[in-house]
Amino acid sequence: MKKIAIINQRYGIQVNGGSEAYTRLLAEHLQKHFDVTVLTTTALDYDTWENYYPVGADSVHGVRVLRFPVRHKRNITWFRIITKCTNMLKKIGIHIDRQWVCAQGPVVPQLVQYVEEHEADYDVFLFVTYLYYATVFALPKVADKSILIPTAHDEPYIHMPIYKKIFTQAAGILYLTKEEKEFVRKKFQNTHLPHDVIGIGIDLPDEQHNPNTVEKAVEKFRSTYQIYGDYIIYAGRVDTGKNCEEMFDFFHRYKQDHPNSTIRLVIVGKAFMEIPPDADIHYLGFVSEADKFAAVAGARWLWLPSKFESLSMALLEGMALGTPGLVNGACKVLKGHCTRSGGALDYEGYEQFQKRMNEMEKMGEEGQEAYVAMCERARAYVKEYYRWDVVEEKVCRLIEIIGDSRYWG
């Protein structure tokens, strides 16, 4: 049985984040095929990277985890300053990418040292997410045994020269969507590397497959949180990086422009920005998985305002529950889900958002058949294309190629 290491910046049941959740699910599904060890930090919070978990060996859902300490917390003020400096200096050909990556964190030199010293102990190293310190500095040390799962999208940071080497030196690359693959290959001209598009498997809890159980869970959720009437939901990290500022602005403007609208906005997830005071915005904070699924199942629509996504587990989970999406069409990945599935609507700018909201509210009043059909298309899309057996087969195939000593010498 091949021994593989999976590297990500955070790992744990309590960790809130798409890349981190993806890494945990992937590690758990690969256990049946390989001897899996996750290499990660002791951080729980991505905002500060403050050490939270004990250093050393751990076990999460039966997966072996090795945690390494973060050298220092992120200084947000300094990080903002160096980000501005980076943007200004690149205009005159000066790059301080290394300093920016270190300021961003989490700085984990002991993890990088472990990878270098234990290269011979593992057949393959999987690095999930291109952006952070561990991938930037550890992947080149085991390049011939490395597979990159970049979770990339067209954001300003990916154009920094420091990232080119990890996209071109990795022995193989696994993409989450066709749009991500097209963007990365055009940007880095790395078409020669072994690769595949793997997506993710969406497994709902057993109780979510029983309509009666779901209905009771939704009723309990509404009663517990005093949520009545139709609502749209945002489920995820609440911060400016997810375009939540625009989301709140658009919702507020829509309610002002349509005073007879009874639609409400429910927010589920940890907030890293101020939630504007509004009687029609219900911020519930970080809730249990059961409450999250019930909240999404009970919503008329799931809102994805982000312009930068490499997959969006939140959208796929919502669609699996039969809740259609309202997505920002400026994100090619989200628009791709929308186009391929027929189970979501996209918008760009306030005027189009307003038009979509009007369509959505009319569906609730007089177009129930059209709404039900959209819900069914959303379910069918996830069921057909996002299965763990397909993901596992593709990942295992590339691991076997890279892990074969005849491939890398």
Automatic annotation (TrEMBL):
One Gene Ontology MF term = glycosyltransferase activity
Record keyword 4Fe-4S present: no
Note the Gene3D superfamilies from the entry: Glycogen Phosphorylase B (3.40.50.2000)
Keyword Transferase in the entry? The reply is: yes
Q: Which UniProt keywords apply?
A: Transferase
What's one GO BP annotation on this UniProt entry? lipopolysaccharide biosynthetic process
**What's the protein called, per UniProt?**
Uncharacterized protein
In terms of superkingdom, the source organism counts as Bacteria
